[in-house]
Amino acid sequence: MPAITRERPGAGIELIRIDRPEVRNALDTATTLALVEAFTELAGDPELRAVVLSTTSTRAFCAGADITEELDAEGGVRRMEAYTALYRVLDELPVPVICVCVGNCVGAGAEMAAGSDLRVAGDNLKLGWAGSRLGVPVGPARLISLVGLARAKELVYTGRVIDGEEALALGLAHRLTTAAQAEPAALELAGELAAHPAEGLRRLKTMFREFDGSAERVSHENALLLEFEREGGGLPRSEGSS
User: Fold this and answer.
1) Distance CA 183, CA 235 (A)
2) Strands 118-122 and 97-101
3) Spans of all domains in the chain
4) Which residues contact 168 (CB under 8 A, 6 or more apart)?
5) pTM (2 decimals)?
6) What is the pLDDT along the chain (242 residues), one digit of tens a residue?
7) Which residues on neighbouring strands pair with residue 79, listed in sequence order?
8) Domain 4-178+197-231 has CATH 3.90.226.10
């Protein structure tokens, strides 16, 4: 079953938690589509001011794709279509997104973190872009503008894992706390943003997207991901019926 929870902890603030602790929040197709549906719905909410993207377990924000999900080749394509839809709607959300980066934050988890506007890191963070180990063409679209070309190449090519202190030093994390305090810190930050004039906040989000050119980059990388799944090696999957 889709495993996310949603609540409104404050005026104009949406808190979304991934809730699959038994697999460190690895994303199966249903949960990915539930996130897509949630973000699509929120995009049309005029009361929304900020979104906090979090987890029900500090052990992991998201450990990437759920490779235990039984999928045939067609199911593998549907899963990748869900991932690319998630990356698109996350980029298109008209208000700032704050990601709670705790524990395992790799693969799709790292992509969601990089696709967010702000990141609060826990002291147990293990953040990494592991796609290159599988030949997956993912990472550059979001990471280059955050840390620069040279550093993005190093992180994506090697797939090495960085901790919260290094994420803070690189500018990937904006605040560093204990794992237990990461979500409260993100909610506090969301409260600060939600107190600003709503129209100005949304206008700034649009300006950042336009000046950064993220829509074009995300669209291009999504197309390469779908090509990789349809015609290349594709993401790992358990063979079976979807």
Assistant:
1) 30
2) parallel
3) 4-178+197-231
4) 121, 174, 175, 176
5) 0.95
6) 669 999 999 999 999 999 999 999 999 999 999 999 999 999 999 999 999 999 999 999 999 999 899 999 999 999 999 999 999 999 999 999 999 999 999 999 999 999 999 999 999 999 999 999 889 999 999 999 999 999 999 999 999 999 999 999 999 999 999 999 999 999 999 999 999 999 999 999 999 999 999 999 999 999 999 999 999 989 988 865 43
7) none
8) yes
